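Aim 2 progress update. The chain analyzed this quarter is reproduced below.
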Amino acid sequence: MLCKDYWYPLYAFVRRSGLQADEAEDIVQAFFARLIERRDLDVLSPDAGRFRSFLRVAVRNFMINKLAHDRAAKRGGGRAPLSLDPGRADERWRGEASLAEDPERAFEQAWARELLRMAVEDLRREYAESGRGRLFEELRDELQRPGESECAAAAERLGISTGACRVALHRLRSRFRERLQSRIQSTLGPGEDWQDELSALLRALAG
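Predicted structure tokens:
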């Protein structure tokens, strides 16, 4: 799951560092393969701080060392391939022209977008499992919109009153914030303020 969740932000970092799609895929796949093979995450101290900072520094060092020793290595480096679809990473890359040119800023932006995506997906599963999947799908586009929503059209489609729709949207947004907080806290060390991290992610999204 870690490989799937954080593949794209690391791919964006490596691509913005000047590598082509196939080279970036090689680097990220080999990086995760080594993390798993050496069980590096098992010995990662909670005191190490923000997980995103650890990953960014670790993949940068790995990339430098790998390119210096074996720029022409075949894809996968002889390791068993991970169960991922890296081809989709380049499709997404080509569709996200708004990522910063600077590798570290591109990583921060991709990381922020990925955390939001994962929080939305967590919420989608929660609502689907509780039989409220249709409600979620009707209101999901309102999750990150500022201000109040009219709710009239969604209420009509759902067969509920506008007032009930507004209450449902308020609850949905509250659960989204909780899901996002949980995702952020899972990447922090003890004592670190998740709201500070949220502010950093919002700044990244703002460009």
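The chain has nine helices and no strands. Residues 73-83 have pLDDT under 50 and may be disordered. These observations will guide the mutagenesis experiments scheduled for the next reporting period.
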